[in-house]
Amino acid sequence: MLRKDRFPFILVLLILFSAVLFLFLHVRSSARLKNSRGESREEIIRSSHDQKLQKFSLTGFDDKGQKFWNLEGDTAKIDLGDTVFLEDNVTLKLKNDTIIKTDHVTWTQDKGLLRTNSPVFVTRDDTHIKGKGAYGRLHESFVQINREVEMDIQPGTRLTCLGPMKIFYNENRMVFFRHVTVTDSKGTLTSNRMDVYFDPEQKKTKEIIAIGDVVIDRGSDTTRAERATYLPATGSVKLEGSPEITLHQGSAELLHAPTGN
Predict the structure, then answer these.
(1) Exposure of 103 by Cβ count < 10 A (0-12 exposed, 13-18 middle, 19+ buried)?
(2) Which residue from 65, 110, 165, 260 has the least number of CB within 10 angstroms?
(3) pTM across the whole model
(4) Residue among 67, 112, 65, 118 at smallest CA distance from 90
(5) Per residue in 23-44, pLDDT tens?
């Protein structure tokens, strides 16, 4: 049986024990919380992914194991979703010697998507193209220049369109959309769409097929058709689809002039 004079002493011991146990549990809980915030796997991954990488390069291969495309930039960052942000001298080299350059590209690894809103410059053999913004599915051999496209085919010959312009680099073909115009020394050729075909052997533009609302202006003479084939080498145009020709006044007078004796 406890003596009454010892009861306060035991009560003090119980209070001290409870206090020590509370502090011990609180310290352990705080340590676990600090550890999860400062040294978790997510934080470690995030810190490593947020670092800038120098001279970053990505390469795609075809079914035969041959290099199909190569994408590189001077600097790159990778986020947790495996999206790569390439900056500074970003260059995409395609299998058919087409080279695309810009300042910034977002590359999504799992979907194989390339995107940029920056100015884009494309070079293939003697053909030079510039535009704004690009979208590409490199695994499907497809790259698109979004808007305000200009292409110098050869000295004195230029093709422009509002965009988009699509590059099917495995087919040696480019397709231009929306108010497409070819201008050379003889005049202009305008249509809704133009398909540009390249000769891989001679490494130059072989022909341009204009489709839909084709209009050819040569001086003051105008010709309309549904389809036309333009040959850059000669500047000649072959018309299809019941062309309509409007001649200027001098030409009409010449055609209808009476024959003299």
Answers:
(1) middle
(2) 260
(3) 0.71
(4) 118
(5) 443 333 332 323 233 434 344 3
